[in-house]
Amino acid sequence: xxxxxxxxxxxxxxxxxxxxxxxxxxxxxxxxxxxxxxxxxxxxxxxxxxxxxxxxxxxxxxxxxxxxxxxxxxxxxxxxxxxxxxxxxxxxxxxxxxxxxxxxxxxxxxxx
Length: 112
Hints:
- The protein is mainly alpha-helical.
- The protein has one domain.
- It has three helices and two strands.
- A two-stranded parallel ribbon has the order 1-2.
- α1 crosses α2.
- The radius of gyration is 20 Å and the shape is elongated.
- The N and C termini lie far apart (46 Å).
- The model has no long low-confidence stretch (mean pLDDT 80).
């Protein structure tokens, strides 16, 4: 299916140079870029949707979970190559060198 993607002059020049240098088409590299990042984008938007659904559900997160629960959450996220989304970034103190913690407003999980 044909698709038109507007590029900046710089992007067009870089893409054309890469294609000329390698003998492959610009279309080949555009498809490679889409394939490389589409799954990541789908996961990010799924996570955002999940956070929003949780926020409107009226459910409350566990206020008194143990520190090892935060480690388990961080480990699971790291295994999947995803950042943990949390309204309790302090619970992940010391893990910033291992995973990128994404703080979300407490209202997302019903704690408002």
